[in-house]
Amino acid sequence: MLRLRKTCLATGPTAATFLCSLVLLLSGCSEPAKPAGGGASTATTNEPSNASEPVTAKAALLPMYSSAYKWAHDVVLLRLAPKDIAGVEKGGGKAAVWEATFASPSQRAYHVYTYAVAAQPPDVYKGVTVGSAVPWAGATRDVTPIQSSAFNVDSDAAYAAAAADAAAWRKKNPGAKLSHLELGNGYSFPAPVWYVMWGDKKLGYVAFVNATTGKVVKK
After folding, report:
1. CA distance linking residue 161 with residue 196, whole number of Å
2. CA geometry: angle at 139 spanning 133 and 144, to 5°?
3. Mean pLDDT along residues 174-189
4. Separation between Cα atoms, residue 38 and residue 15, nearest integer Å
């Protein structure tokens, strides 16, 4: 499993280049967001709202990146994954809540950003929320920055590719639910990958989908 570690060294394109790429790729997906600040979390709103439709990773990424860019212009994306929210079903590579980890080499810290399509106080806020800063020492072999140019395959397409690869196993295990979906980058693969798992590590099924080509790859 791709996992975030506190010991990491930043590489990849400048944050400005990444932002421009995201704007061109995700135009129309932006929402207002507040920058990271100090120790306490911040949010766009804490008002309850009706449940909204789940969204793909790319739709949630741009507002989070816009907020992270206000914190530090050299931010790099390390991880992107969905989270569960009551009342909005997660499936098909879409979710009502997405969580992204952005790190800054100059600040030597990272923040965890969350984007939600609906609010569920007191823990879930609609829009972007920002976690406290955590010390960061740079990239490791297991966790390296995800370049925008290599992130071509959205979460729904990655899920579809993984589901096709797991079709035979899922037919034999109809009760197994999607337990993990995460975008990350490490030395084991030539490009960022989507890690998709049904069931558990011991008896479940895992598929790695290349986030550049959309093809299932073996570790």
Report:
1. 10
2. 105
3. 94
4. 21
Burial of 161 (0-12, 13-18, 19+ CB in 10 A): buried
CATH class for the region spanning 150-217: alpha beta
How many angstroms separate the CA atoms of 70 and 81, rounded? 22
SS (H, E, C) the chain: CCCCCCCCCCCCCCHHHHHHHHHHHCCCCCCCCCCCCCCCCEECCCCCCCCCCCECHHHHHHHHHHHHHHHCCCCEEEEEEEECECCECCECCEECEEEEEEEECCCCEEEEEEEECCCECCCECCEEEECCCEECCCCCCCCCCECHHHCCCCHHHHHHHHHHHCHHHHHHCCCCCEEEEEEECCCCCCCCEEEEEECCCCCCEEEEEECCCCCEECC
Under 8 Å between Cβ of 186 and 143: yes
Domain ranges of the chain: 15-148, 150-217
Global pTM exceeds 0.85 = no
What gap in Å lies between CA 49 and CA 135, rounded to an integer? 34
Contact present, 134 and 109 (Cβ < 8 Å)? yes
How far is residue 192's CA from residue 190's CA, in Å, rounded to a whole number? 7
Q: d(Cα 138, Cα 213) in Å, to the nearest integer?
A: 27
Percent of the chain, pLDDT > 90? 67
**pLDDT tens-digit series, residues 119-140:** 888 889 999 999 999 999 999 9
The pLDDT assigned to 218 comes to 84
